[in-house]
Design a protein that fits this description.
By secondary structure, the chain is α/β, with parallel strands linked by helices. It is 21% helix and 29% strand. The protein contains six helices and 19 strands.
Length: 276
Amino acid sequence: MLAAKPKGAPTETIPKKVFLNKGQAKLSGGASSNNMKNHGGPVMQGTINVYLIWYGNWGTNTAPNVIIPFLSGLKDTAWWAITTTYYQGTTQLKYAGNPVYKNSTNVLNTYGTSLSNANIQQIVSDSITSGVFPSDTNGVYFVLTSAEVTASSGFCTSYCGWHNHGTIGGKDIKYSFVGNPDRCINSCAAQTTSPNGNAGADGMANIIAHELTETVTDPDLNGWYDASGQENADKCAWTFGTMQTTNGAKWNMQSSGYNYLIQQNWSLTRIACAMS
């Protein structure tokens, strides 16, 4: 039964696209070798604004000092340049744009510490209807949860993050959930060490990169994916290419002068996972 929703409540569009944890990714058989296909949907173009909702008890956690510089420099990386090769149309091609970090807000555990998918969309809706963030159809809103918070649909046990879109205030809004891998470091982080002194935050940077590039190339879930339904980052999940080691932690990419360990992205031209 589909019950009537309260007036003004956000409308959730399903299915969402998930980033499998390491165990589930192995069970799925890993990346398929077939190339991506444009299914006719749009890509996000121009300047893509990124909004961060820090949900839960972040306290003195240094995660913002890791995540915000990462997002601020991401558009200038060779890794993101792969994303900008994705396009919409068949004759006059329009290419994917570049992300720009816009703003953050902190939200206490308003909806408790075990969030449903509907709770997560409502948190995004609250940030818009309250005026904290604008209603931005060319933005991506991330709900980033602290370590005491889980998502009841399978954070840690099945996935590490996901992206979706839904109608909020009459507009199609793109949003993503990313949990803190400190809750399940061996499932949702590539390593227990950290190039930035915060393994959970470094793990989140990898998940955010995964979800952001997929949101841009497949914002309405009818854009770019392969014959098995994998989006570009899905095809390269938990693969990192050539890595360096500093202070006992591996990294393969720099953004805003910081070192990060970020999974590879699917290159349309190479028909393979790559970092550039």
